[in-house]
Structure formats: structure tokens, C-alpha cells
Request: fold
Amino acid sequence: MNRTARRRLTAAVLTVVAVTTGATACSSAAGGTSAKSADGKTYTIWDPYPQFTKGSAWAKLLDGCGTEAGVKIKRTPFDTSDLTNKALLAAQQGNSADILIVDNPVVSTLAEAGVLTSADDNKVDTSKVSPNLLAAGQSGGKTYGTPIGANTLALYYNKEVLKAAGVDIASVKDWKSLTAALAKVKAAGKKGITFSAIGTEEGSFQFLPWFWGSGARLTALDSDQATSALSLWKGWLDKGYAPNSVINNTQTTSWQEFAGGDYAFSENGTWQLANADKAGFDYGVIPVPASTGGAAQAPTGGEFVTMPVQKDTGRYATSQKLVSCLTNSQNLLETDTTLSYVAPTTEVQDKQVAANAKLKPWVEAVKAAKGRTSDDLGTKYPKISEQLWKAVQSALSGSASPKDALGSAQSAVK
Reply:
């Protein structure tokens, strides 16, 4: 690693340590960053799935891919926030895991710190991956890793509430028709829409479909389009179509409001499907509409399978076999079903819909989705996101107009 790359890595470590101080790993590896075994036939995999213990389908898949490649797998699961820190520290010590599975916005951080190999180096085939999903793992014109699956946001709706208000869901195609539906719902004595606008990444994540759906770009937070998106949310609060609680809502508390049965709509993610089935009322799902119609781009969640830089480059060939195994069509289908993810390839998406028709609107939403670090934003995204959620908080609380709040955000980013 050259001097410039080492400086970038050290800076990245210091930044992440400052952000994640106090995080605790969910494995026996929590006390250190040792990733290598003395046995050259053992390959290490770090993932953010501590919920999957030894004996789970996920753990068995990893072992099976190891057997197929002729090696043993040493797997260490971490809490998501702690994994980035541990990965950076391990790289600084020259002791990276052979394979890292990380949240997609983290890929650019690790790539720019010189931690990851690119597809040019590791020969991982990404040709079947949907370009909009792959973009989250691209930085500086290179691709770092491949997505294992994706989730995103859409609008859940309560069929009973809409029927009582005389709203045909087929009429909800853009912002104007959605707002008209909310007006009818309120007039019928029910509640309109709930979402999360909390002052964290969750708030930015939930605002992005409306932000992008307006035609705005993250490089110009104060554009007229961006102002229209924030004005939409502010207008809903002012008219009582959305509750003031959204300012403090997480995605979980927002869902709990919807699950009470009085709300017509909830902006939430694929991960709520199991809870939706338990809600006790008939529901449906539509993509978040763009301002003038069609599906808005929503941000993608989900992880990338990446290969860190190794001193012994001879390990790459086997690591590549492991990545290819983990992301082949059959294993993607099984893994993404377990994780409640939409697959990153059209071939597997079609199989998912064939097996579960409820996934169709989610596949449509993922096809229109966009990585938060796309447009080559890379490590610029966290600062932009922070100013965006601050602007949302400022406007919804009434301390600044949408235009002024976003103007201040853009100035702060510059």
C-alpha cells in the first residue's frame, strides 16, 4: 500500500472510530481484528448478520461454498455499525478478511480508503447485476463488489380505509392524486399517511424517494425541485394529512402507527412484509409515485459482497470462487428469501415473483431504485445526508421554510 493510500486509510479509520465508539461486535472476534488463520486452507468471511447463528441456512451456505472451493470457512458476524470499523482496522494492520459483506453505502468508504479490490483485480463477474443496484458499489469508474440483494421503500396501503373513503388505489399515480386521496381519507374521519422524518439517516432515507421523485439531485439540495418535495411533506403536516409525530418517528415507530389500522398509507420497506401479514387488515403495496407520475427512485438498502486487498494475492482466485458461489442464481434465490431482499438480477427476481406474487411491487420499486452513493458521490454522501435530514427537521418543525432550510443545507455542504 503506497503512502497516499495509507493516509486515506488512516483518515477513514479515525472517522469511523469517532462515529462508532461504543459499538459492540456480536461475535467472539469482538476483542480484535485478527482475520487470518494459520491454516492457509481456511478463508475468513465477515458479515453483518449476527441473527444467523451456526446451523442456520446462511451459515450452512457459507460452509457449502467453502466445500465447493476446497477450503474451510471461518465466519465472523458483526453488528452493521461495528463491521466497518473492524474492517478498516484490520486493513490498517494488513490482516483483512478474505471476504467482507457490508452495507452498500459503506463500499465507497472502504474503496476510497484502499481496502477493497476492484472487479478488474478480482475478476468477479457482475454482468448480470442490474446497473442501478451495482452503481452503489462503484467509485472512481471502478466496481467494488457485487450486491447480494436489495431492499427499498414503497407505500403500503390499507384497503379498508381507502374503500371507506371512496379512494380507488388505481387513481393514485402522482403527488397530486396522492394528496387528493389523503384529503378524502381525512374527510372520512381516518388518518392519511405516516413516515419517518427523524433527524438521522433514516429520515434522509425516507425523504429520498420524494426528493428524487421531484427530479432533484443530491449535488443541489436547494433546487426548486428539492423545495417542492419538502413543501409536499410540510403541506401534509399543515393540513393534518400526516401526523406531527413523523418528526420523531423511526421506521419502526412509523410502522407501528400504520399497524394500528387507522392510516391509509405508510412509507416503509420490504422488511415489513412479515409484519404486514400479521397486521390484521387487508393491505396492498405501490411504488412511491414521482411528482408527475411513474415510480420515483427510492434508495436501496442491502449488502455487497466484497474482496479486500490481501498481501498474498494468490488467495484471490479462491475468494473469487466463494463470491461466485454466494451470488449464483440458486443461492441468491434462497438467501434473498431468507433476508426478505429482492435479488439483484432480473433472472432471480422473476423466480421470486413466481414464488410469491406479493413481491411484484417490490421488484418494480427496486428496478427504479438508486444507491445513496450513486452518481459517484462516494464518501461525500454522509455529509450531504446529514444536511438533508437537518433541513427536513427544520422545515417540518416550522423553524424555517422549505426553501430556506434547503438553502442552509446546501451552504453547509459547500
Q: What stands out?
A: The chain has 18 helices and eleven strands. Confidence is low (pLDDT under 50) at residues 13-33.
